[in-house]
């Protein structure tokens, strides 16, 4: 018995370098895969992330898109209705990469690992696009995408349009800086470092999420919301999402009475994805805030 | 005589103290003097809003839900003559959760506010009816049927998670299932209360029959107990009371199991004497757990159902060990 165990151990020991070699080999192959040259003007682009879907639809004609994700349609209907007509959809899976044979795959840092591996082994170049959490990020990501798909001028035009609107907002600040905070009903604190925070600032308002008494909390309760006395609360409107518990919590009786006329809805898609239209979101927000009754909250 | 009065009086005083504490404790510290002032002069200021729109309904809901759980636990332990019985055992909790999750994720809750609790109760009633239909022949078959129905409802919940429209929705379902009383208001109290009252009436109506049942099913029937009616009342009452409780605050375990055991040393083993004290202790337990959930510092909200399970499991172990000691070897 002991002899058998010893021999198994010996064999395992002998196998170890082989296994290690295989492992290293596999890694090596993956590296080669990602080094595949990207065509100067890709004609079959596959996007596997909702935010790159939207940017892609703005940058290239539809016949150059192999597919966008199944998530894109509802957001497209809000931001640019009809822009995805006739474009195929994918679910970000590995099989679809093989079936659609794209010449460029746009992925996010959260794309499935199997899809990445397969993309590497089929030789399709896969490029990871960061998510954007600021206007600077939006400029960078939009330009990066424009270069990738061979449409730098189009990307530059989108960035210029955004910057023009932002400059216009900055040049005409509102008479009064109102204090606002995002209340989604689940208590998640939308503070600095988020795109929403930048949009609020561009709209000329003060996001009070940062100076909450209990800023150490990742969440805040309705009690803290009341204590902070914001002039208005912002609630993300996702027309395309099914109603959720979160929204019903945002619709608490107390919220309805205490913030009567002080609830602002914003298009959630424009805050979730860093798109050049974020400037429009800021404009829209400023107009909404201007409609909030003047003076502090009544209680 | 005086000795017999001491215990109830102490219990009521403890409950009152816990209610006061529950009104004092929250994320925002408000001076008790300001709170007392807000209590006497109704006006729309911060203290009044927090007290009357958040903390009072939360306290009331904790008492109602805890009472429902304790009462139905006591009735079910008497009915099944099994110390491990609780509403979760018969599939009622899982059925209510499934109903509520369906209401939320098929978008029904947005159209009519009442839909979530009503579907929760319908889910609980269907689960109870299924358990009763399959397991009406005897106690053991009923427990087995309950386990099967729980499994079925659990599979339905997994299916809902599977088809959740987004990862966020899946997260929401799971965290909702953990059970919580945070940010509940009068709307929820008003929605659940009528169903709970009806459920309590059904449960209390079984009181006399449960005592006869301690002698055994045949003996109880020979004493004139209509077993079918008793089972129907107990399950309908549990479905209404626990179903509506689960529908407004998610599934909260172990209260229904623990409360009857905690009161038996004081009131004896007659099921009839256990019911109301068990409801009282259930309410107290849930209120204390909710206060603890608010006091324990954590960056994310500590869910009430998690806390009761954490505190309840050691109790369950103790119960199993005690049963093993008492059973003939």
CATH superfamily of chain B: ABC transporter involved in vitamin B12 uptake, BtuC
Helix content of chain B: over 70%
SSE topology string of chain A: HEHEHEHEHEHHEHEHEHHEHH
Describe the global form of chain A: elongated
Distance between the termini of chain B: 41 Å
Classify the fold: give the CATH topology of the domain at 175-290 in chain A: Rossmann fold
Q: How many strand units of chain B?
A: 0
Shape of chain B: globular
**Would you count the extended β strands of chain A for me?**
9
Amount of beta strand of chain B: under 5%
Keywords (chain B): Cell membrane, Membrane, Transmembrane, Transmembrane helix, Transport
Organism (chain B): Croceibacterium xixiisoli
Subcellular location (chain B): Cell membrane
GO cellular component, one term (chain B): plasma membrane
Ordered list of secondary-structure elements with their pairings:
The complex is a heterodimer of chains A (299) and B (329).
Chain A: H1 2-34, E1 45-47, H2 50-59, E2 65-69, H3 72-79, E3 89-90, H4 94-100, E4 104-107, H5 113-122, E5 126-128, H6 135-148, H7 152-171, E6 179-182, H8 195-202, E7 206-207, H9 222-228, E8 232-237, H10 245-250, H11 253-258, E9 263-267, H12 268-272, H13 278-290
Helix pairs in contact in A: 1-5, 4-5, 6-7, 7-13, 8-13
Chain B: H1 2-24, H2 32-40, H3 46-80, H4 92-105, H5 108-111, H6 115-134, H7 139-162, H8 167-177, H9 186-205, H10 207-213, H11 217-222, H12 227-249, H13 255-267, H14 271-295, H15 304-326
């Amino acid at each position: 018995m002991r002899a058998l165990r010893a021999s198994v151990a010996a064999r395992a020991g002998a196998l170890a370098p082989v296994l290690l070699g295989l492992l290293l080999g596999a890694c090596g192959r993956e590296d080669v895969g990602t080094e595949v040259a990207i065509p100067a003007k890709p004609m079959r682009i596959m996007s596997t992330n909702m935010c790159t879907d939207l940017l892609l639809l703005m940058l290239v004609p539809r016949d150059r898109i192999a597919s966008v994700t199944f998530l894109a349609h509802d957001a497209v209907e809000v931001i640019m209705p009809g822009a995805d007509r006739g474009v195929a959809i994918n679910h970000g899976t590995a099989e679809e990469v093989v079936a659609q044979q794209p010449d460029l795959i746009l992925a996010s840092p959260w794309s499935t690992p199997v899809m990445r591996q397969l993309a590497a082994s089929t030789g399709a170049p896969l490029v990871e696009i960061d998510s954007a959490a600021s206007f600077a990020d939006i400029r960078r990501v939009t330009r990066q995408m424009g270069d990738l798909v061979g449409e730098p001028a189009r990307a530059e035009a989108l960035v210029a349009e955004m910057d023009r609107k932002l400059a216009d907002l900055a040049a005409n600040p509102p008479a009064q800086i109102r204090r606002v905070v995002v209340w989604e009903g689940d208590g998640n604190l939308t503070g600095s470092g988020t795109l929403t925070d930048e949009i609020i600032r561009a709209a000329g308002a003060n996001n009070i999420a940062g100076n909450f008494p209990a800023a150490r909390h990742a969440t805040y309760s309705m009690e803290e919301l009341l204590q902070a006395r914001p002039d208005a609360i912002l609630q993300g409107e996702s027309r395309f999402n099914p109603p959720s518990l979160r929204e019903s919590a945002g619709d608490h009786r107390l919220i309805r009475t205490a913030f009567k006329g002080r609830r602002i809805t914003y298009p959630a898609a424009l805050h979730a994805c860093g798109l050049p239209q974020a400037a429009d979101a800021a404009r829209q927000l400023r107009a909404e805030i201007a409609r909030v009754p003047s003076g502090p909250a009544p209680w | 005589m005086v000795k017999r009065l001491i215990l109830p009086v102490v219990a009521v005083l403890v409950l009152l103290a816990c209610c006061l504490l529950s009104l004092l404790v929250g994320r925002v510290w408000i001076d008790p003097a300001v709170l007392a002032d807000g209590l006497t002069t109704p006006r729309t200021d911060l203290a009044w809003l927090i007290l009357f729109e958040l903390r009072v309904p939360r306290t009331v809901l904790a008492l109602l839900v805890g009472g429902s759980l304790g009462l139905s636990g006591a009735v079910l332990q008497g009915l099944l003559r099994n110390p491990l019985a609780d509403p979760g055992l018969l599939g009622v909790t899982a059925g209510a959760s499934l109903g509520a999750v369906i209401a939320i994720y098929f978008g029904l809750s947005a159209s009519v506010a009442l839909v979530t609790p009503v579907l929760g109760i319908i889910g609980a009633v269907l689960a109870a009816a299924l358990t009763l239909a399959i397991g009406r022949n005897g106690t053991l078959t009923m427990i087995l049927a309950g386990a099967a129905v729980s499994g079925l409802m659990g599979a339905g919940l997994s299916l809902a998670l599977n088809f959740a429209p987004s990862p966020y929705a899946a997260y929401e379902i799971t965290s909702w299932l953990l059970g919580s009383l945070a940010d509940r208001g009068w709307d929820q109290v008003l929605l659940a209360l009528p169903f709970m009252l009806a459920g309590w009436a059904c449960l209390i109506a079984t009181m006399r029959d449960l005592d006869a049942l301690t002698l055994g099913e045949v003996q109880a029937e020979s004493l004139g107990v209509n077993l079918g009616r008793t089972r129907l009342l107990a399950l309908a009452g549990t479905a209404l009371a626990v179903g509506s409780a689960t529908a407004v605050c998610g599934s909260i375990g172990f209260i229904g199991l623990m409360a009857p055991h905690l009161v038996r040393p004081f009131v004896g083993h007659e099921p009839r004497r256990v019911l109301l004290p068990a409801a009282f202790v259930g309410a107290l337990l849930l209120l204390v757990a909710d206060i603890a959930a608010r006091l324990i510092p954590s960056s994310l909200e500590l869910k009430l159902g998690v806390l009761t399970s954490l505190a309840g499991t050691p109790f369950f172990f103790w119960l199993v060990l005690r049963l093993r000691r008492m059973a003939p070897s």
